[in-house]
């Protein structure tokens, strides 16, 4: 699977960012989920918007799965990514943090 052109990544990130800021937040997550099917690989400019959209929708289970992708891709040390993850875990109910609930 290719990594897509840098121009395509920029366009997709701009659209994801737009949905993350203006809604509907679900569209942000759907576009993120579609990226691998289009041969596009998310990066440190993609993940913060997706994590924030998961928080807005209280989709903490999805946020934790995205966190796993972030670790696998090596972007957890990116300032923006780390900040969005911190924000998510601060907002997350204790039952999600403990793994007792998944939504």
From TrEMBL:
PPR repeat copies, ranges: 8-42
Gene3D superfamilies per record: Tetratricopeptide repeat domain
GO biological process: RNA modification
The keyword Plastid appears for this protein: no
Family matches, as InterPro entries: PPR_At4g14850-like_plant, PPR_rpt, TPR-like_helical_dom_sf
Any matching Pfam family: PPR_2
Record key words, sorted: Repeat
Record carries keyword Repeat: yes
Gene Ontology molecular function: RNA binding
The name this protein goes by in its record: Pentatricopeptide repeat-containing protein
